[in-house]
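Query form — protein TatD related DNase

QUESTION: What is the three-dimensional structure of this chain?
INPUT:
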Amino acid sequence: MNLPFTCSTEDHNLVRFSFQVTGGSLEESKEALAIAETDARLFCTVGVHPTRCKEFEDSGDPEKHLQDLLTLAKEGKEKGKEDGKQTLDAVVAIGECGLDYDRLHFCPSDIQKKYFEKQFELAYTMKLPMFLHMRAASQDFCDILQRNKDRFVAGVAHSFTGSAEDCDKLLSFSNVLIGINGCSLKTAENLEVVKGIPVERMMIETDSPYCDIKNTHAGIRYVKSSWPSKKKDKHDQECLVKGRNEPCLVRQVLEVVAGTKGIADIDQLSQTLYHNTCRVFFPHDLDSAAEALLASGREDL
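ANSWER: The structure tokens for TatD related DNase are given below.
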């Protein structure tokens, strides 16, 4: 289970954020919902990662497995999260689902395609956006999106590492945004792709605890922020855990995106990216949702 993190920052002290605890299987989705219920700032997804799609057939009853996912999504939607002003749904997306042809040793492509397409039924029934995964599979991925373009309200292809051509294919779908993290910023070619993504079609994330920006990455030259870190066995509340991609490091992703695109007003960029996040995951009452998330963040300042 990973923890993507989308946010904007006005300065180093005020962080606007939305934690999405990601479900990668039925059991992980149950765990994600349980975690989301522990804190007003946490939300979750329900779905099956492409590398786990064999679990549908291993269950002995793929249709029941799909229905169990639907039941879980409904449960999260019914419970909601009170912020004092309104109720926000705990489950904010279907996923992480999609195609991953770099890891076919975990699940063959035919099974991935079959159950990626099946999960659009969940998005359609629940009227939820999709949290999407695409690795080395852009043609099949976009073919499936095309067949189902009217069955999901919006989506984000997270941790994007594809080519400019792959990017253009995704951007041809008006309801799909592209998620950028450290893995998206490794090479000069990656940075050229990011430069071409319209800001209004982008989100930023950490994919915590993975996908940090390393010193060998092309994007490192734009990083300005840093925090002290200590090894896990010497944990200190004032420090990051060494080697772990902590949520606050999304600031570095923001800095690299700004530097790559030549944007001087990083605060305005952050506000736009945060608005994009709310537009996809909290569309029913955008302004109130943003205010609620900001309020929950301020409580911990």
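ADDITIONAL NOTE: The chain has a mean pLDDT of 88.
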